[in-house]
Amino acid sequence: MPFPVPNQVVQASQQQPKHYGITSPISLALPKEADIVLTHKLTEALKPYGVFEEELELQRRILVLGKLNTLVKEWIRDISETKNLPPSIIENVGGKIFTFGSYRLGVHTKGADIDALCVAPRHVDRSDFFSSFYEKLKEQEEVKDLRAVEEAFVPVIKLSFDGIEIDILFARLALQTIPEDLDLRDDGLLKNLDIRCIRSLNGCRVTDEILHLVPNIENFRLTLRAIKLWAKRHNIYSNILGFLGGVSWAMLVARTCQLYPNAVASTLVHKFFLVFSKWEWPNPVLLKQPEDCNLNLPVWDPRVTPSDRYHLMPIITPAYPQQNSTYNVSVSTRAVMIEEFKQGLAITDEILQNKAEWSKLFEAPNFFQKYKYVLNCLSCWTHMVRFYDFNKDITKITVFSICNLIFLFVFGMIFHSYIGFLIWVSNNTKNRSDCYYIPVFMI
Length: 443
Fold this sequence. Notes:
Distance between the termini: 72 Å
Shape: globular
Number of helices: 13
Radius of gyration: 24 Å
Order of helices and strands: HHHHEHEHEEEHHHHHHEEEHEEE
Oligomer: single chain
Largest sheet: 5 strands, mixed
């Protein structure tokens, strides 16, 4: 038998589909006409819930981000001149606004805020960001509700720019200039950075990795929109309440896309429930094999860190340093989510058999019929404590919420001998008060 010539080898390698994820796909089946029809029906079913933004509103967001990016470049040039950098460096010093979260993933809803990251070169300090850049923002007519949260775990400036709420993080890279084509996925950028900059970069790095690890971005986006809406309607969309946050849902959907790389959204929604209703937790969900960059940063590794062994539903971020995004999940909340996965599977089975419509998947359950015992906790956080900062001559307003106390109360009740199951659900009215319904299953 003759050996293949080089051109034949190249053609054979080109015909092999790209491999996504840490395992081989479950199915490479192509979509049928019925799958495409069901995907169209899914899109139509999502529209009444406001999960798609109008084109004019999308263009408005792009315009606002463009203005913000220009402000960042102007500010960094001014800082560079103040610090007497050579004109050749100032001319190309750069600086850039990156986005992450639901906006970067392309699944943001109407009126959603934007998570942004200001990336600056090495001669721009964090103190500059919270002083001179803050003052520059204050001078803009379009900017309202400007406030800095400098002492947060991930320091942030919050503002409303032309009616669009934006959270801006800051990261200083060990670079002399910031090029326009900078790829934040480069692990080498983390060298010689302080931990706050690494935390600030994490959101962008994780989001970009997710988009690079799915076989079809449009199918991923439509599937994620459907799953996020379903989770919100079923009261299991919240990291702080012990369920899953946005990035966790995105990673579960991304893993489903890896396992069924050729499937369209209608199939992927069904496969999502199939996969995770049968997932053997606490086996972790991974989008790629963890990499060690030898930067001595703490990563999720139950072989090394004993506390990681107690995580019940680990979903591991794909960017270094890898972390578990679901550390708040409890035995009770995991049980609730698994049951919801099973119910979602049953409903999507009916939909694929044309026995039900997509609207059934997004029906909100009757909370008070579902649970026999419910504790109703109303928390109000209208009281504010003012601290006067004589150095900056401004008034900082710190708002204390009772939320953490309720979390500790619920966490303590879980270990009571008479309580076999307990979760909590927030009915946030966005008026500085929260109503928490805490269903309890008694033994």
